[in-house]
Specification:
Elements (H helix, E strand, L loop, with lengths): L1 E3 L7 H10 L4 E5 L14 E6 L10 E6 L3 E4 L9 E8 L4 E6 L8 H8 L5 E6 L14 H12 L3 E3 L17 E5 L6 E4 L10 E4 L13 E5 L1 H8 L11 H21 L1 E5 L4
Parallel strand pairs: 1-2, 7-8
Antiparallel strand pairs: 2-4, 3-4, 5-6, 6-7, 8-10, 9-10, 11-12, 13-14
């Protein structure tokens, strides 16, 4: 799955539900907006992240890998203002990349070569801010034309939805969220409409007739709401609030406590769909 989260920190609970419901093996996230002081946790996923080095809560990329999969961090060459992170899945040696190309940064052949011209099998999920009619946009931009030309000359495929993935007020919808891969597996994109962002998450699924590379059982997250109510009733509430800062901190503490109670009240059960 690939998704531009437009700030990830307060969306982990709903993201975790979507990941488990769809049996996602790896998720490539763009615009995490995380900083070094933000600790994040997902019950069934390891999180590999690259925050913006200046400490500003914008941009940033991450990869979420299911804990049933073995992986190692995979080093990438310097790509300047293009934000990218990668892991290698073991033993398949498939390289997973998450890439965010800021709209103000021009796409160049040099960076495209560094990221996507490789002999090893790779799968990249990205928001590349490149528009072209061949992947369902109303118009072209310079980045889209560069990517289209490079893809025609290189040995990789662009995978995209026949529907739009990016929606902003007072603007035409567009398709900015793509997969780039040289992997031989048969893959189909599918949109997810249940996460909060101006970008729609895109799943990449293997058709039923093709063999899956993952070996973990399809499952969903079941919640014991009685247990959740019992746990939340024990949360101490801060009532001595004398400033806006106190209120902000109290809200963050309460939100964190609710998420912890939710996770404690959930467990994976076999999916009915499987």
């Amino acid at each position: 799955m690939t998704w531009n989260a437009c700030s990830l920190f307060h969306k982990f609970t709903e993201l975790e539900l979507i990941l488990n419901l769809n049996n996602v093996a790896a998720a490539m996230i763009q615009e995490t907006w995380l900083t070094g002081d933000r600790t994040v946790y997902l019950q069934n996923y390891n999180i590999i992240r690259r925050d913006r080095p200046n400490g500003v809560a914008h941009g940033g990329v991450a990869i979420l890998v299911h804990k049933n999969l073995n992986f190692i961090p995979y080093p990438l060459p310097d790509t300047g203002e293009v934000e990218a992170i990668a892991v290698k899945i073991i033993p398949s040696n498939l390289i997973i990349l998450s890439v965010y190309w800021p709209p103000s940064v021009r796409i160049t052949d040099d960076v495209l070569n560094k990221l996507f011209c490789r002999r090893q099998p790779f799968l990249a999920g990205l928001d590349i801010n490149a528009k072209h009619r061949s992947w369902n946009n109303h118009s072209y931009n310079r980045n889209g034309m560069t990517l289209r030309r490079h893809a025609d000359q290189a040995v990789y495929d662009l995978i995209y939805l026949p529907t739009f993935t990016h929606f902003q007020p007072n603007s035409l919808p567009s398709t900015l969220d793509l997969f780039i891969t040289n992997w031989a597996a048969k893959l189909q994109p599918e949109v997810v409409n249940d996460l909060q962002s101006d970008h729609r998450p895109v799943l990449l699924i293997t058709p039923p007739s093709s063999s899956r590379s993952t070996n973990f059982t399809s499952s969903v997250l079941a919640t014991d709401w009685d247990n959740y109510r019992a746990n939340t009733s024990k949360i101490p509430l801060r009532t001595n609030l004398s400033s806006q800062t106190d209120i902000d901190h109290a809200i963050l503490d309460l939100n964190s406590s609710l998420k912890i109670c939710f996770r404690k009240s959930c467990q994976l059960v076999p999916s009915i769909r499987s």
